[in-house]
């Protein structure tokens, strides 16, 4: 089948309820989340943070827990009942940890971004984000949807990762 087209995000998504999540520890870029058009300002390293439900503009608990994280190598998502271990065996993968909430006083959707339907994702491509005054697509090439080309001349999209849940 042909999967060519424009996509907000490309990858694999899983269900994992955040109600029992305590923290995350990961090897990758951090400590802040990224967007397709806002990849600067993060540093490669080992990062750890407690779960929080920060909604940007409503509280000052930073860095936010929910969002996209770049350059994933490995992550441990620590929950009350065990640890979900994720190891990336491919380069340039993104980790999606849950979806941030919408600010109550928000008057537009430009700054919300587009997230996969599930709670945890390993992605090859993520969505851009707009500004208070304009949509993401109005900000140049890095802010456009991801293009997937189906051609015998293009390498297929691929990625490899491992998941393991270790109960307490």
Automatic annotation (TrEMBL):
InterPro entries documented for this protein: Gal_mutarotase_sf_dom, GH-type_carb-bd
UniProt record, GO biological process: carbohydrate metabolic process
Protein name in UniProt: Beta-galactosidase
GO molecular-function term, one example from the UniProt record: carbohydrate binding
Source organism: termite gut metagenome
